[in-house]
Design goal:
The protein has about 450 residues and is an alpha+beta fold. It has helices spanning about 5-10, 35-45, 70-75, 85-105, 140-150, 180-200, 235-255, 280-285, 315-330, 330-345, 350-360, 420-440; strands at about 1-5, 20-25, 55, 65, 75, 115-120, 125-135, 150-155, 220-230, 265-270, 295-300, 360-370, 375, 380-390, 395-400, 405-415. The protein starts with a strand and ends with a helix.
């Protein structure tokens, strides 16, 4: 028996039981069943003993991992549909299937993962594989690192994958003047106070993007993606675009609702490394927090949408960017991380995190994928995205980059949010902001 990770402890309780779906789209059909089985057996399972363990609750309520024998056939699902249908048809089947997977609960008597192989061609690939991984297995960063470690560079397997350079967010490493430090201190105090207030007291308004229903984590979710080109956008600007798209949607659905109090929980990894560490490195005890211990978040208010149709979209993005920059210039993310650690010791963590998520309108998280094409044996990877499901929120936005493309994945409560309209609003937001910015540059 091995004690479960902190993430495992707080993502697997009755108040919060969260799964990650990682969707991999392939260039070629996935047809060789025996090869696939051996890849899962020889490449996926050995990644971590956790993939062959179940969670058992100890005497004092703590969770431990217990090794069990894995029966692959219990974990690999291959749905069957009618043959020879159109790509559009399979697109729809896939979406429905993904939505079903999102709703199903994993069997707790087995290791907490499933692999679904959708063998039919969709507009995004010749075949699609969905990894459903319980968050108890690790945080998003370590799980994605694990998945990437199974894949190789398609052009030359002996070269290592490279990731787009990201500015280091380790704010404390830079030298600062006294004045700057004072400002960091002031920001930290105000942000942390507000974050505490927001986490414990202040709930967002019910709006076209927040149903505010207690049972929302069990409501059907639809999952869809919108793709942008990475070189047209800059990191923080993306969040601004998403906010703008959300307000366009809210105003489009219910005029005036664009001024509802809506807060996004931006999830951050406080790990110092900006690229994926190798698995061996992650497992080293001196690498603080392998498999999910460096987790923090910031609360960002979505700017209100006053005259959103006539006002300058760039103003909106700048406002969002200003807010995020200010939060980043404070240590609030480290403090919320510390608070989580403290709550964990008090065994109140699941309830606390559930409350934090529940009181906001959406969560945003991102995943940086490699610049080069990846492959697994003869299968080259066309695209990838991920989604977190069973969280107490009506809307979840995940950003994933791969091969210079940015994929925004939207998970939305089916009964509440009109997913087609929502995606159109996202595309419009991108279009308008892109146009406005090129106009500004050229004049
Ligand atoms: C859950 O898994 C166990 C062990 O494989 C099995 O005996 C049981 O029937 C499963 N339960 C359901 C509801 O599928």
């Amino acid at each position: 028996m091995e004690p479960c990770t902190p993430t495992g402890q707080y993502y697997s309780s009755s108040s919060l039981s969260v799964c990650i779906l990682a969707v991999l789209e392939w260039d070629v059909p996935v047809d060789d069943d025996s090869q696939i089985m051996s890849l899962i057996q020889d490449v996926f399972l050995p990644i971590n003993p956790r993939f062959a363990s179940i969670l058992v609750t100890g005497k004092s309520g703590e969770k431990n991992l217990k090794k069990v024998a894995v029966k692959l056939e219990d974990h690999i699902k291959v749905p069957v549909f009618e043959e020879g249908l159109s790509v559009e048809c399979y697109d729809e089947y896939f979406q429905e299937y993904l939505s079903e997977i999102a709703m199903e609960r994993l069997n707790k008597s087995r290791p907490l993962w499933e692999i679904h192989i959708f063998k039919y061609p969709t507009s995004n690939g010749a075949a699609t594989t969905v990894f459903k991984l319980h968050h108890a297995l690790g945080d998003g960063y370590s799980l994605m690192g694990a998945l990437f470690s199974c894949l190789q560079r398609a052009d030359n397997p002996s070269l290592s994958l490279t990731f787009p350079s990201i500015r280091s967010n380790n704010y404390m490493n830079k030298k600062k003047s006294v004045l700057e430090l004072l400002s960091v201190f002031k920001n930290t105090v105000t942000d942390f106070t507000w974050s505490l207030f927001k986490s414990n007291v202040l709930e967002d308004h019910v709006s076209p993007i927040r149903s505010g229903k207690e049972g929302v984590k069990f409501s059907p979710v639809s999952i869809s993606t919108v793709t942008f080109s990475l070189d047209q956008t800059v990191n923080d600007v993306i969040v601004g675009i998403i906010f703008y798209g959300i307000r366009l949607y809210m105003e489009g659905t219910n005029q005036g609702s664009g001024n509802a109090r809506s807060t996004a929980l931006v999830l951050l990894n406080t790990r110092e490394a900006t690229v994926y560490q190798s698995l061996e490195e992650m497992e080293k005890p001196e690498t603080k927090g392998p498999w999910g211990e460096n987790f923090g978040y910031i609360h960002v208010s979505i700017p209100e949408a006053t005259n959103i149709d006539t006002s300058d979209p760039l103003e909106f993005v700048f406002e969002a960017k200003r807010m995020i920059t200010k939060k980043k210039n404070s240590l609030v993310v480290y403090l919320t991380g510390t608070l989580i650690e403290l709550m964990r010791k008090l065994r109140e963590i699941s309830k606390h995190i559930r409350g934090v998520i529940w009181k906001t309108s959406l969560a945003i998280s991102n995943l940086i994928g490699p610049v080069e094409k990846m492959s697994l044996a003869k299968y080259s990877l066309k695209g990838l995205y991920f989604m977190v499901v069973n969280i107490p929120q009506s809307l979840m936005v995940m950003i994933a980059s791969y091969m210079g493309k940015l994929r925004i994945t939207i998970g939305s409560e089916k009964e509440l949010i009109n997913q087609k309209l929502f995606n159109t609003c996202m595309e419009n937001a991108f279009e308008r902001i892109y146009k406005a910015s090129t106009k500004t540059i050229s004049t």
